[in-house]
Amino acid sequence: MIKPNMHYAELKDAYLFYNIAQKTKRYLEEHPGQRLLRLGIGDVSLPLCPAVIKALHEAVEDQSQQERFHGYMPEPGAPFLRHDVAEYYRKRNIDITDDEVFISSGASDELGDILDLFDSNGSSLIMEPAYPAYVDANVIEGRRIIHVPSSRENSFIPMPDEPADLIYLCSPNNPTGAVFTKEQLKVWVDFANEHDSVILFDAAYEAFIEDPSLPRSIFEIDGARTCAIEICSLSKTAGFTGTRLGYTIIPTQLERYDMSLHDMWIRNRTTKTNGISYILQKGGAAVFSEEGQRQIQENLHVYKNNAKVIMKALDEADIWYTGGKNAPYIWMECPNNMDSWTFFDTLLNEIQVVGTPGSGFGSCGEKYFRFSSFGNPEDTQEAATRLATLLKRL
Ligand SMILES: *Cc1c(COP(=O)(O)O)cnc(C)c1O
């Protein structure tokens, strides 16, 4: 009998978002006509910007014309978009060559697929609380997972201790909104070089960083070119969650056992993909145009204002939290030592606000709660007002 990959049996149930959906559904059945204010979503709510829409339309038109039609695209990405992404880094004085950029259909896809480059007997260090997909992708591969919890004591920025083959870092972080400083990231880069590990740096939220002293790319850190892969996405930056486009940076000098991980990834992509849609890559290129950059900043501004509104409510109630400043997430300590599902129920039942319980991101999230700034501004303002009143009462 054919034997399936038995590691699937080790996956924990995708309990978090299912449970949220069940609880909100039940609440609405019992309270018909009530409207819920949703601060739980990890998806964007604003539409694609006009520059992107225009480029997408033009690209569709191209595909109707004999002279402008595109068939298969190069597997690592269209040269025009690889160039634009590399320029996006070079403008910030980060030396990335066009051929170190790989265009992808999103960060989640890459975070799973990239494991093809490594021996599956290895270990993966995952800083927690974490995006649930990191753990699951590693369980499926049968890799040994080293959970590195973080806490209020280190402001949810863990530092290295036990060596591992692969190291997952996410900054700005989902769910905590915590951001590594250059000095903190340098400690991890040195650690990875010393132990010949590879860092997978998830930079999905880099565009939310406003403080110029904070690193938006791991390649701002000396030594990262010999130990890091950066995985990025246009999902949160430019609203591509449903459109799907991302990019991955693999430096040409990144080698282990005399194997070039960069060249291996070209081989992987040419084997397992046939490139990303021409139309989408044209839409993606528009994000990096001057007009596109201005327009996506307008959208980011709306989300950043939402974050400010939520932070103000927490500040008034003297609640401890991370994030919100250079990240779309706010990670708060639940009041009165409440556990995160009890706080979820309290918010739902008393003020009709839906957020995300911290325990869904790993056990060290137990007494914490995540708010997202991706909702609509009116609902966010109303939710923050109710939250401020409730927290005073609790
Ligand atoms: C949303 C998100 C991504 C982006 O995933 P896509 O597949 O590109 O939509 C990546 N990493 C984290 C931590 C995220 O929250």
Explain how this protein is built:
- The protein is α/β, with parallel strands linked by helices.
- The protein is built from 12 helices and 15 strands.
- It has helices at 15-30, 50-62, 79-90, 107-113, 132-141, 182-195, 235-238, 261-272, 278-287, 290-316, 340-351, 377-393, and strands at residues 37-38, 101-104, 123-128, 144-149, 166-170, 198-202, 228-233, 246-249, 255-256, 259-260, 321-323, 329-333, 353-354, 356-357, 368-372.
- The mean pLDDT is 97.
- Bound molecules: pyridoxal-5'-phosphate.
- Pyridoxal-5'-phosphate (PLP) is lined by residues 42, 106-108, 131, 170, 174, 202, 204, 233, 235-236, 241, 246.
What is the element layout, followed by pairings?
Layout: H1 15-30, E1 37-38, H2 50-62, H3 79-90, E2 101-104, H4 107-113, E3 123-128, H5 132-141, E4 144-149, E5 166-170, H6 182-195, E6 198-202, E7 228-233, H7 235-238, E8 246-249, E9 255-256, E10 259-260, H8 261-272, H9 278-287, H10 290-316, E11 321-323, E12 329-333, H11 340-351, E13 353-354, E14 356-357, E15 368-372, H12 377-393
Parallel strand pairs: 1-13, 3-4, 3-5, 5-6, 6-7
Antiparallel strand pairs: 2-8, 7-8, 9-10, 11-12, 12-15, 14-15
Helix pairs in contact: 2-9, 3-9, 10-12
Bound molecules: pyridoxal-5'-phosphate.
